[in-house]
Design goal:
Blueprint: E1 2-8, E2 14-20, E3 25-30, E4 38-41, E5 46-49, E6 51-56, H1 69-78, E7 81-86, H2 97-107, E8 113-116, H3 126-130, E9 137-141, H4 153-165, E10 170-173, H5 194-198, H6 201-218, E11 222-224, H7 230-238, E12 242-245, H8 247-251, H9 257-260, H10 273-284, E13 290-291, H11 300-303, H12 320-330, H13 335-349, E14 366-369, E15 375-376, E16 395-396, E17 401-404, E18 407-411, E19 414-415
Parallel strand pairs: 1-4, 6-7, 7-8, 9-10, 10-11, 11-12, 12-13
Antiparallel strand pairs: 1-2, 2-3, 5-14, 14-17, 15-16, 17-18, 18-19
Helix pairs in contact: 6-7
Bound molecules: N-carbamoyl-L-aspartate and zinc ion (ZN) (2 copies).
Cofactor: Zn(2+)
Enzyme class: hydrolase
Binding site for substrate: 57-59, 89, 298
Length: 425
Amino acid sequence: MLTIRNATLADGSKRDVRIDTDAGRISAIGSSLTESGKSIDATGKLLLPGAIDAHVHFRQPGFSHKETWETGSKSAVAGGVTTVVDQPNTNPPTIDGESFDEKAELAAKSYIDYGINGGVTPDWEPESLFDRPVLALGEVFLADSTGKMGIEEELFREAVERAADDYLVVTVHAEDADLFDEDARSRDGNDTDAWSAYRTAEAEAAAVERACEIGDELGARLHIAHTSTPEGIDAAREIGATCEVTPHHLFLSRDDLDELGTFGRMNPPLRSEKRREKVFARVADGTVDMIATDHAPHTRKEKDANIWDAPSGVPGVETMLPLLLEQARKGNLSYDRVADLTSRNPSKVFGMPRKGRIEEGRMADLVLVDPDETREIRGDNLHSKCGWTPFEGWTGVFPELTMVRGNVVFENGEFGEPVGENVRA
Ligand SMILES: NC(=O)N[C@@H](CC(=O)O)C(=O)O
Ligand SMILES: [Zn+2]
Ligand SMILES: [Zn+2]
């Protein structure tokens, strides 16, 4: 037994939270619970449900020079993330039973819990893939991104139908390459805004609409990955699909590209400041279901190329919750909204009913922070293998302690044991 005493919860209430460390669960919540076992005095501290990041690329197998399950999950837990969902564009891509098993073996080294998604290419094998403990289908790429897994509409339809048969959510990378601005391709390689000009906002909105129509027609549950425009968000929500926004689309815009250079290239790309503000408003008012990072590390050396040759993607799993807590500290978002966006909603959408909330009986996935203690974000101090961040110099509120099913996996800069488990296995 471990009791966290007098903690402030996301709704502002002050509670004692008792953890049955053997069972890994929250066993009681109350005021002044009687003494029993160890206790932590959390007076003045904020206790949040561990964050669930529904979109990461931990790069193994195939790209362990960018990230590994060990480095990625350490980065996650140091940022208050206790569960991640890994995407299929690894090498081999996670598209059949064999490739799933290969990834599952590597993922067993994770410090935190995880789900493993299955992907779709013309060679995928749904029978063997769905025979494994897959969390969801996706991200299914409607346009090429890192890994060149873009597929045609006909195969997308087949995949959505197959997923619906197994009641699996389908996470979609929604961009329509036919609507990219080919004229922008002639822009100079040093013009860092060119990527945003090329992969247009219209290309996202149109693809979201089309994907949602197909999902609706086939009776599938669609989740739109990394929506970067207000139009994309509205199109998804209108038809009842869920959606996520990344921290970079929430906080960064085309105005930052002068400074970021190719380190600000990702898919979908950064948008205008005007669109960013509208995205922020939809996150703050609850239209957007969740924040997910699309943590997509590449080495500095790989990123240090011209805008047409640099790989797409930025890291983010360690800075998501700290950046959101800083917004809450400043009064731009409530702590309750942050908990919705990072824990409660992803647990609901991706079917993890024992995670995502501080409630009796739920898993003791918990994050303890001092809500007034801020720290400057520096790539050097983060734990991802890539060693950089698009949020260099920003301010964050970082966890003091992160617990996964009652195990202290991170405390004051030190790591515990890698206790990660597949949430579906
Ligand atoms: N978002 C990105 O720009 N890159 C992602 C792939 C993806 O999510 O599309 C990656 O794996 O590098
Ligand atoms: Zn994507
Ligand atoms: Zn992604």
